[in-house]
Amino acid sequence: MTLDSIEAKIGSLAPDFKLLATNGQEISLTDFRGKSKVIVFFIREATCPQCHMHVAQLGKMYNQFREAGTEIIVILGEDVNQAREYAKGINLPFPILSDPNRNIYHLYELEKYFLLFQRTASLVVDKDGIVRYLKRTTLPNVWMQESRELYGFVDSLN
């Protein structure tokens, strides 16, 4: 794992990572540098219904995001087999990345709140690898409107 910076914050170089995806590929954040913007979404827990709805909505809007020059990376803190099971019911056009030890969650400062509630985040990284949008939360209900907010944001970068 390569560290480009210590922490993720708006205007900073996004910390790089490489994870195994549900399609069997290893995908890193730097794979997209110079090519497209990237939305990175960290699923709170596999059982989180709001996260599931948000990921499903990102899947439905995927063509719109692609037209706006943006790819999507979704990270789940489970092993790749559990990530495949999670993705199977959603029928996504993009893979889910597996972070079984939640190393990338920690890299992005998404430790569990009071050791109970997994923090989650949504961010937009531009073509140069710079974080342009970042929302961290312990309350998953914020993701109900997030897909449209993200689309508006990435479209405004064009």
Describe this structure in words.
By secondary structure, the protein is an alpha+beta fold. Helices cover 27% and strands 25% of the residues. The radius of gyration is 14 Å and the shape is globular.
Features of the shown structure:
158 residues; single chain; Glutaredoxin; 7-stranded mixed β-sheet
Task: Please summarize what this structure is.
The chain has 158 residues and is of the alpha+beta class. It contains 5 helices and 9 strands. A hairpin with a 4-residue loop joins strand 1 and strand 2 (26-28).
Count of domains = 1
Can you give the helix content as a percent range? 25-40%
Overall pLDDT confidence:
86
Largest sheet: 7 strands, mixed
What CATH calls the topology is: Glutaredoxin
- How many beta-strand elements? 9
Order of helices and strands: EEEHHEHEHEEEEH
Architecture (CATH level 2) name: 3-Layer(aba) Sandwich
Q: Mind telling me the CATH superfamily name?
A: Glutaredoxin
Quaternary state of this entry equals single chain
**Bulk shape:** globular
Q: Give start-end ranges of low-pLDDT stretches.
A: 1-6
CATH class: Alpha Beta
Decide which structural class fits the backbone. alpha+beta
Topology:
Elements: E1 18-21, E2 26-28, E3 37-42, H1 49-60, H2 62-67, E4 70-76, H3 80-88, E5 96-98, H4 103-107, E6 112-113, E7 117-118, E8 120-125, E9 131-137, H5 146-156
Parallel strand pairs: 3-4, 4-5
Antiparallel strand pairs: 1-2, 1-5, 3-8, 6-7, 8-9
